[in-house]
Amino acid sequence: MKAITHAALAATSTAAFLGESNPLVLLASAIASQIPDVDTSKSVSGRILFPISSFIEQKFPHRSVTHSFIATAIIAVVLSPVLLLSRTIYGALVVGYFMGWFGDVFTKTGVAAFYPSQARLVIPGNPQLRLSTNSAAEPFIFVLLIIVGVIVLNINSQGGIVMAFNQLLGLPEGVIEEVISKGQNNILYVEIIGKDETTQQNIKDRFEVIQALTSNDLLVESQGGVLYRAGRSQNAQIRVGSIRLERGPSVSSETRQVTLEEQPFTDLNLDQYPKRTYLTGTVAVTDSFSLNLIPLIDRYNPVTFQPTRDNTGILRLRSARPQDIATIEADVTGNILIRTVVPKE
């Protein structure tokens, strides 16, 4: 098998197994796929590393010691310091090395995969179906690998195989799992087909995902800036029939805690925060006369008030935006988590 075919097999396998589309990761895998052929001075890696390849060539037959499971294990151990830099690159190097020799299993002579045993692993059993270097079938195999690789990269760029499967089914639970696992890395959007639980009108619209509320529900924001609880729980304002997830720009997110001591929310200077700022916490209100919070049944209420006694009460914030608390003038006491989300340039 030619070096370029080894590289294509390794890169495609890495994209599939690791769910990666990073060119640097795929390049690392492609380079590692050339190392097994260091056992012959005629190969690309053998010519580059001639002193090493010359020594191995004199001691071992071609496609023996370097084309084996034990060699893969040794490589995995030798490269383990790479884990300190990048687990992904490490995985790509190991997968690339393994696929670099495993592709030769399908050649006429196979490989000594179980070295030091000299028994050859050859697939398939019919010699007529095995590959030989420079055979007419190899360009076809190469093109096929490129096509598969493009398909896998496209799936990875859309969130991976799991996300593609969830997209196919359109189930909220699968999408919510994706939001929980990847919501910190990208702005996420969902296209929902469902029903408004208040008006019973059908809905087909696109929303921005704020966060997963439970394993059944998402907090989403409409294009008009209205928050909804979307899912299949009894508390959802939008009953989801089917849902598709779309990844937007990459983001950096930061969460910090602030403490208010009988202070108004204006002391937080929220007008200086980015557009996507969300507040979560529970604070005590010492004078609730100034509060004018009317819960709305047709949408999600990020700020709720529970009166106690002596004109005091508790304010609960859950992913409240600055505009959701802009009209609250009462002094409050308590801790608040402020989460900011900023698209990367």
Give the gist of this structure.
The chain is α+β, with helices and mostly antiparallel strands. Helix content is 31%, strand content 27%.
Your description of this structure?
The protein has 345 residues and is an alpha+beta fold. Helix content is 31%, strand content 27%. A five-stranded mixed barrel has the order 1-2-3-4-5. Strand 2 and strand 3 form a beta hairpin. Helix 1 (3-18) packs across helix 2 (23-32). The model has no long low-confidence stretch (mean pLDDT 85).
Strand content: 25-35%
Number of helical runs?
Answer: 9
Could you tell me the radius of gyration in angstroms? 29 Å
Which regions are unreliable across 5 or more consecutive residues at pLDDT < 50?
none
Physical arrangement of strands within the biggest beta sheet? 1-2-3-4-5
Oligomer: single chain
Helix/sheet category: alpha+beta
Question: Features of this protein?
Answer:
345 residues; 3 domains; alpha+beta; SH3 type barrels; five-stranded mixed barrel; 9 helices
Topology:
Layout: H1 3-18, H2 23-32, H3 44-48, H4 50-59, H5 69-78, H6 87-102, H7 137-157, H8 161-169, H9 172-182, E1 186-196, E2 202-212, E3 217-221, E4 227-231, E5 238-263, E6 276-285, E7 303-307, E8 313-320, E9 332-343
Parallel strand pairs: 4-5
Antiparallel strand pairs: 1-2, 1-5, 2-3, 3-4, 5-9, 6-8, 6-9, 7-8
